[in-house]
């Protein structure tokens, strides 16, 4: 499966959300290019739109997605294959990288925050998991803002 040269995406441009035709997101070394089949609305998505936050000339909106791997960057460390069904999250409305959102036909997403879709979960359900799972992980294990717990299997701390 190859990606088209242009896609439709919901973007934040000049402080408002628009459906625009834009270039397909470029594949960066540690990223996957994914054909998006389902997205979920997260509070951070509408808050970015309401606050007019985004990059210039645009930022793709949206954090949670599920879809199919189309291309794999050279520095992706997980063992993905083209055609893998995946889900995860991205930094939608990113003010420093406009192509990071997922409310688009195709999305560039970090390989490290993307997971293979289990056979018993559909795209719609999977698209609701990504940012919630990352938030839980940060709350438990992040040193400065979270509880700072040790990762399972490290040290003697038990949950």
Determine the CATH topology: Quinone Oxidoreductase, Chain A, domain 1
Residue share in β-strands = 25-35%
Number of separate structural domains: 1
Biggest sheet strand line-up? 7-3-5-6-8
CATH-scheme architecture? Alpha-Beta Complex
Task: Give the biggest sheet.
Answer: 5 strands, antiparallel
**Terminal Cα separation, in Å?**
44 Å
CATH class reads: Alpha Beta
The helix content, as a percent range, equals 10-25%
Secondary structural class: alpha+beta
Order of helices and strands: EEEHEEEEEHH
Count of individual helical segments: 3
Mean pLDDT: 91
Number of strands: 8
Shape: globular
Residue stretches low in confidence (pLDDT < 50, at least 5 long) are none
CATH-defined superfamily: Medium-chain alcohol dehydrogenases, catalytic domain
Radius of gyration: 16 Å
Name the descriptors.
16% helix; Quinone Oxidoreductase, Chain A, domain 1; single chain; 159 residues; 3-stranded antiparallel beta sheet; 3 helices; alpha+beta; globular; 5-stranded antiparallel beta sheet
Architecture overview:
The chain has a single domain (6-141), classed as Quinone Oxidoreductase, Chain A, domain 1 (Alpha-Beta Complex), CATH 3.90.180.10. The relative contact order is 0.20. The termini are far apart. It contains three helices and eight strands. The chain is globular, with a radius of gyration of 16 Å. The chain has 159 residues and is α+β, with helices and mostly antiparallel strands. 16% of the residues lie in helices and 31% in strands. It has helices at residues 43-51, 123-126, 130-141, and strands at 6-13, 16-23, 31-40, 59-60, 64-72, 85-89, 106-110, 114-116. Strands 7-3-5-6-8 form a five-stranded antiparallel β-sheet. The model has no long low-confidence stretch (mean pLDDT 91).
């Amino acid at each position: 499966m190859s990606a088209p040269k242009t896609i439709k995406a919901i973007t934040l441009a000049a402080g408002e959300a628009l459906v625009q035709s834009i270039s397909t997101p470029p594949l960066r070394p540690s990223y996957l290019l994914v054909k998006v089949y389902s997205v979920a609305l997260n509070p951070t998505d509408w808050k970015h739109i309401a606050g007019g936050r985004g990059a210039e000339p645009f930022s793709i909106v949206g954090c949670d997605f599920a879809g199919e791997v189309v291309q794999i960057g050279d520095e992706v460390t997980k063992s993905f294959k083209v055609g893998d069904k995946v889900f995860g999250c991205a930094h939608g409305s990113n003010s420093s990288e406009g192509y990071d959102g997922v409310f688009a036909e195709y999305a560039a997403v970090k390989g490290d925050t993307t997971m293979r879709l289990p056979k018993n979960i559909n795209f719609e359900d999977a698209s609701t998991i990504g940012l919630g799972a990352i938030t839980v992980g940060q709350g438990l294990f992040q040193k400065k803002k979270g509880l700072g717990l040790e990762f399972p299997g490290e040290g003697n701390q038990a949950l």
